[in-house]
Design a protein that fits this description.
- The chain is 18% helix and 32% strand.
- It is α+β, with helices and mostly antiparallel strands.
- It has one domain.
- The strands form 2 sheets. Strands 4, 5, 6, 7, 8, 9 and 10 form a 7-stranded antiparallel β-sheet that branches.
- The longest helix is centred in the C-terminal third of the chain and has 17 residues.
- It is globular, with a radius of gyration of 18 Å.
Length: 193
């Protein structure tokens, strides 16, 4: 990982620890609006909001190595010098759900946020890239450790379409470790059958 990518990762981790950045839901009248508090991304009328985070990393490829995006850390401790990956992803994937709802109660669809609402402290690290944000200085040529972030909204799967959520609210956060554990268990079960 280059010094520039490492510095960006450290700066991002520090920015996300700023007090007061943890409010995930807002109430507008009787409607509950799901919101990513770190990036200001809003999912109006949805029952869930998901932030997906991928990091550009080295992978073993036969007798060599290749770079690709991955949502979990790739252990590079046995790789040859020059193919080191960061030990952690500095930003976690998260899911916010409206009260009384579960992630399997609808369909996750890509959400293209309005990036003009990106807080100033994060706009120095991220820039619009595709349907999300990226930390690469040159999106056409990312470096190991660069991040790509996308969002998805969960809409109810009833015949009437998504309806605004009304009433009180709460939020659920699934960090990278919890999500990895859930997916790891699912993969183990699949392999055993």
């Amino acid at each position: 990982m280059s010094m520039v990518a490492a510095a960006r990762a450290v700066a991002l981790a520090c920015l996300l620890l700023v007090p007061g950045m943890q409010q995930a839901l807002a109430s507008e009248g009787d409607d509950v609006v799901l919101r990513d508090p770190d990036f200001g991304v809003v999912a109006d009328g949805a029952i869930g909001l998901q932030r997906r985070v991928h990091m550009y990393q080295w992978h073993r490829d036969g007798d060599g190595y290749r770079l690709e995006w991955n949502d979990t850390v790739v252990d590079s401790s046995g790789f040859v010098p020059g193919h080191e990956n960061p030990a952690t992803i500095p930003l976690h994937a998260r899911v916010w759900l409206a009260p009384g709802h579960e992630a399997g109660q609808g369909e996750w669809v890509p959400l293209r946020p309005d990036f003009s609402a990106l807080p100033g402290n994060l706009s120095a690290t991220f820039q619009p890239e595709g349907d999300g944000l990226g930390s690469a200085a040159n999106p056409a040529s990312p470096e190991p450790g660069d991040l790509r972030i996308t969002w998805h909204a969960l809409h109810a799967s009833d015949a009437g379409g998504a309806q605004p959520i009304r009433g009180s609210y709460a939020w659920l956060v699934l960090g990278g470790l919890a999500a990895s554990l859930v997916f790891g268990i699912a993969l183990l079960r699949r392999r055993r059958s």
